[in-house]
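Hi everyone, sorry if this is the wrong subforum. Our group has a chain we'd like a structural model of before ordering constructs, and none of us has done structure prediction before. Sequence below.
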Amino acid sequence: MSTPALFFAGPREHFFRPLTWQDREACAAVLRHLHDRVHGPEADYAEAMTRDLVLEIIQHVIAQTAYRTGALSSQQSVDAQAEREYALGLLRALKEHGWLEDYKDPIDLQPILKLTRAGKAFSEVFAELDNARHKTRQRNMRSARKALQAFLDSRDEDELLDAYDYASRVVQDLQDDIEYFRHLMQALTREALTQKLAWDEFNDFLESRFGKEMSVRLVADSVDRHRSQIVELLDLVRAWPGDQRLRVDAALRQRAAWLDEVLDGRSATLWLCQRIEALIDAACEVKLPMLRSEMHNYVRRFTSLLRQALSLDYGAESPMGLTLSGLKSSAPPDRDAWLDALAHRLATAEVRLPASGLRWTQRERQEVQGSDPAWQIRPDSRLEAAMRRAEAEAFVISEDRLLARLQSQAGGQVLRLSHLASGQADEVLTALHAVGAARSMQGRSLWQTHKLPSRFETDTFVADDYELRPHAAEPKAPEEST
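Answer:
Right subforum, don't worry. Here is the predicted structure as tokens:
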């Protein structure tokens, strides 16, 4: 086993020390500006990061009031010389602790500065933490599908590694969205405790996040939409001959040395396909329901608070507000007497719910309560109710019943989707839902699905042909597969 690389060694022994001093906010702001200036979307790549440029960025940061207090003490006389000395000290500290390093420009051979590899990684975190402009559109599902398709077309092993990388980000994308809604719920609770309504956050969610990002992610970039296509592409990769898969495995081990630590003698291609499918399944079956639940909880909570704010007056000058503030500030004996008086007044009140928004008089209500019409059940109503119930149950597909029917029809042999299609309504429904049932969590342990290049047409529908093979069935001979 290779020796693990130590992070806090050499120049990085005290890497985070500049972020523990009194001027840590100014230091973090300088790192954000350095990253945006060198690696950000508006970076000027024609301008080298010289020593004077870094000093200029530091002085620009400490000129702001929010960072000036921590950078320069109040007893110190603040002038251009003091700012210059502080900038030089911070520059030395960043170089000493491994954030910046000296570099010679290969073009004009002039000494310049650059962010170290660790400095670039951590300064990127500071730059993107509170910057909505750097948020991705999270199209990793589509990217994974396109990378798999490119791998099948070009046999380029890097495309399969890219597909695995994109698939691993799908779960993180959904988890980031879940954390976002949890943050909104916490902000909503804090605002409600201070008798405010977090309208700005809700408006930003509707206009910026949901209208431009969430709606696309739940429709065009939905994990459910691309799941079946990704599974089909993975099945095509798994169906490759053994000698071709061995060549791909060797190339994958050469390009990604980390695979040797997790394969344990297994095929690299099959392991990557299994991991991609597991990640997509986790996104569809775990993270996506959690995201919808968190979004529903947030909207429902905000709607409830908004309805209360519109229907009730909790202001300090309202009768309820005056009563609550008086109870809070009164002494215990006076508070008990006040509560007894309120209970005596409220004891004579009668609470009623108006029907359909109409106010019924006492006389009309008595007449309605006293009327007891004789209900009669007509025979045709029973038949109509039975027909509606039968129509509703006709298209309810039981996955267990469908798998049992497929097993009875197969008898341990290979099934083709074109052989299942027929003119009977129940057989047509079986053919339409057979592939989905075989690829479900329960059906995957019983069946193997393989998409065939041919298509078939019936009187009801046109579809791609599939082969459903029970796990106990023997594989076909090469002559039959061709």
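For your construct planning: Residues 356-368, 476-482 have pLDDT under 50 and may be disordered. Strands lie at 100-104, 111-115, 415-416, 447-457, 462-470.
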